[in-house]
Amino acid sequence: MGEKTSISRLLEAIEANGRVPRLVLVAKIFELREEMSLADAARRLKDYSAQETFSTQDKDLELLTEIKDLQLRKNELSGLFSRDKVIMINQRGSIVPIVKTIQAPLVIQEFRNRTLLSVFQEKYFANSVASVLSQILFVTFGAIVEAQIPSETLQEFHERNPDATKVIFFDNVDVLNVDRLALYGSALKDSTLYEQYLSHGKIWYVVYTSRPNGLVVGLTRNCVVTCFSKIDEQEFADYIRNEILGLIR
Question: Among residues of the chain, what percentage have pLDDT more than 70?
């Protein structure tokens, strides 16, 4: 067999620590607003480790944040972000604090004159990862921001293959007391209803079947990507690189 990919190696590291695979894969994409080479980013992130103490119930729990398994390739820097958090569990009738470690593969890559960060975890944790990386790389919290797909681009994306779309959500709705509008199933084939909703709002979220490989994917304007099909994270990373990054403006 060929050389293992960076994501594959990260997955092995996660599985070695007992992580249970997710049924739905989620990633969020960010953009680095400040210029930095991948080599410089690798140097700053290498061996990063921070520790803090969390005191509760007369216990001092040590919480660790780490970045490890860094691999630098031609246009891509990958690694594994790991962070401890305290959760409270019921243990034989008593509420006991324990330390839980959450891990997220991450990829920083150069793409069409942009430097993009993909974090393979749910969006709230991904936001936290982006904030930490911004502080490590640029000593500020505002240098890594959400990547954006214009609503016009999502509209074009849907209209190129409307039969593949399963769900559309619209936001910025100008109808009083209505925050969002949605189209599902057979309603998507009603072009009059679609045009009516489009005249009152902007496309925020679409769920569609990908034409190249049949994956069912959800995509938001602020680049939260959800794969509902059964694939591994390397395939998911490849899909994002090949099909999603080009939509970012």
Answer: 91
Burial level of 217, CB count in 10 A (0-12/13-18/19+)?
Answer: buried
Scanning 96-185, the segments in alpha helix (DSSP H) are 123-138, 151-160
CA distance 186 to 168: 12
Q: How far is CA 88 from the centre of its chain?
A: 26
Output DSSP code: residue 163. G
- What is the value of pTM for the model shown? 0.87
CA-CA distance, 8 to 1, in Å (whole number)?
Answer: 13
CA 148, 243, 120, 139: dihedral to nearest 10 degrees? -40
- Average pLDDT score over the chain: 90
Q: Tally the C-alpha atoms within 13 A of residue 78's C-alpha that lie toward its C-beta.
A: 16
In 57-201, the DSSP E strands lie at 59-73, 76-91, 94-111, 114-119, 144-146, 165-171, 181-184
Domain layout of the chain by residue ranges: 6-146, 151-221
At 88-119, the pLDDT tens digits run 999 999 899 999 999 999 999 999 999 999 99
Evaluate the CA torsion angle 144, 145, 146, 149 in order and state its sign: negative
Instruction: List residues bridging with 145 in a β-sheet.
Output: 31
Phi-psi region of 198 (alpha: psi -120 to 50; beta: other; left: phi over 0): alpha
Average pLDDT over residues 37-60: 93
Q: What angle do CA 68, 61, 85 make, to 5 degrees?
A: 55
